[in-house]
Inverse folding.
């Protein structure tokens, strides 16, 4: 998206949200930093990204709040996070300050502790146009899903009850890392973050994932919260799986090249609730 288009889209965002979002305290263990305007733009407009994927990571600004137990929640980057009806199983749990709004009701579900819904003003119904861009609407009240910072943006796969997380979305540094820095550095030095072409020797096809849903912690074997992919594993390396992917490389004189390979996932033992 061009810079001019970005600025034009900002007219659909409440200026007070941008101003108030900057008030969030610093959180030094976050790997990706976004400006307040940019993160809110992604929340309410979600431009160019398809609903299947959302390459958005938690930042030090943007719609957020903290529960009494200290857990931080950031607004979900997916279009289906907006709902006109309160999802089943969620019950009123009090009021909070979130998304730039004060004393708004929030709702929790003990079976899904990584989610909280907040009833607040939004600027879309969560519907996308043919280009995958969120369609803006007049401001109105709706239920907006916020996600535990540990889960938001995390690309997870369940293999026999154990979770693996993409090297792209894991946080190995800071006060509360997802994995130890030593573990992360060892895997990165051995396999890298992405492997182009065929899988390394010893890795064989394990199966194809099923999609468990956005922002979820996959509970079933061979389920992924990021999409449908081929998974390869090596019994001699139980801490790593490879997940099929493809990416585009631009070329100056052609339309570009589609590259195929695998993203590296490592075993993830972070508590989810």
């Amino acid at each position: 998206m061009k810079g001019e288009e970005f600025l034009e889209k900002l007219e659909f965002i409440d200026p007070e949200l941008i101003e108030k979002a900057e008030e969030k305290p610093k959180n030094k263990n976050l790997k990706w930093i976004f400006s307040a305007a940019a993160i809110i733009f992604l929340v309410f407009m979600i431009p160019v990204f398809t609903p299947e994927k959302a390459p958005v990571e938690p930042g030090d600004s943007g719609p957020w709040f903290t529960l009494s137990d200290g857990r931080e929640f950031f607004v979900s980057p997916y279009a289906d996070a907006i709902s006109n009806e309160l999802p089943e199983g969620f019950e009123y749990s009090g009021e909070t300050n979130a998304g730039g709004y004060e004393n708004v009701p929030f709702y929790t579900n003990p079976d899904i502790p990584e989610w909280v819904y907040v009833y607040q003003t939004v600027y879309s119904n969560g519907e996308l146009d043919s280009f995958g861009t969120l369609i803006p609407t007049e401001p109105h009240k709706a239920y907006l899903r916020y996600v535990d910072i540990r889960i938001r943006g995390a690309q997870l796969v369940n293999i026999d009850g154990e979770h693996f997380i993409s090297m792209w979305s894991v946080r190995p540094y800071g006060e509360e890392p997802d994995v130890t820095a030593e573990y992360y550095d060892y895997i990165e030095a051995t396999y890298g973050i992405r492997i182009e072409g065929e899988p390394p020797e010893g890795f064989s096809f394990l199966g194809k994932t099923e999609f468990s849903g956005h922002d979820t912690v996959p509970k079933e074997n061979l389920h992924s919260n990021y999409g449908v992919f081929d998974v390869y594993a090596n019994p001699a390396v139980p801490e790593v799986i490879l997940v099929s992917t493809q990416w585009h490389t631009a070329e100056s004189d052609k339309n570009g090249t589609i590259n195929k390979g695998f993203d590296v996932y490592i075993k993830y033992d972070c508590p989810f609730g």
Observations:
- The first helix runs from residue 3 to 9.
- The chain has a mean pLDDT of 78.
- The two ends are 36 Å apart (CA to CA).
- Residues 3-148 form one domain.
